[in-house]
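Quick one, T. Sequence first:
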Amino acid sequence: MAIAKAERLMNLALCLLGTRRPLSKRELRESVEAYLEAGSDDSFNRMFERDKDDLRELGLVIETVESLDGEIGYLARRDSNRLPPITLDAEEAAALGLAAKVWQQARLAGAASGALQKLRAAGLPEDVDPYEPHSALEPRIPVHEAAFEPLMLACRDRRPVGFDYRKANAAQPEPRHVEPWALECWRGHWYLAGFDRDRGAERVFRLSRITGRVRSRGGRFTAQVPDVVTVRETVASWAGETADRSARIRLRTGAGYPLRAKATAVRELGDGWDELEIPYGHGLDAWLVEFGPDVVVLEPAELRADVVDRLRAVAKG
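Structure tokens:
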């Protein structure tokens, strides 16, 4: 169904862009094959008006012209729908190349390749390779979650979605109804920021905790999309990046290098264990659980209790 509509919109856009004079509804109906299959004039009129509105929402400038005999015609002048020249510097090209790598892993390799070819045609310098960053290190942003592609499209189309989400301390997933705003990768994990309709507030979801299929919902957004969506800042605060307290943990020797990198003090205990002092903020318990039996929380007591609760929830689930 979605492919059929996209093809219909493309054919209508080509008709409007390809004509030198306004075309009437009757002429457009005869030119677009999908319109010929409309059962009645009313059905065609509704379909055409929806398609016209969709094309305008996508940015196509469609003019409405009334002829001398009162007949209404439509056309999209090429000079009104021509994009300005595209110029990219080396840093912008590298960013697009990195995005193309993400798309390739998300089963959008064809679209990524086509986009880069169009950028070449629009003037991207041949000596700039958008796939190669200007460093000896190649950044990698993995996309393994099945939810990535439908959520990316939902963010683009401003379309509400529903999915089952399992919190780190929950044994079973819960249904969520979300208006998706933006996707962002932080420390090797993808996160979705959006408006949670059930809770009536902004929320951030880790894609790896989405279970089952992402389902599209009808209707429009009910909450205003902010100009700036701070996905990384929100996740960082939950992970204790803005912590103003300290926690004391035991960590198995040779394990937990991310924790060691955050530690403000390290003391060898012997018998294969070290004692670390690390920053403590909201969400630290969820991060510590990921290290399993290699971490034991010593203090504070509330952090230890939170970690134990999460481990019990995982054991039950």
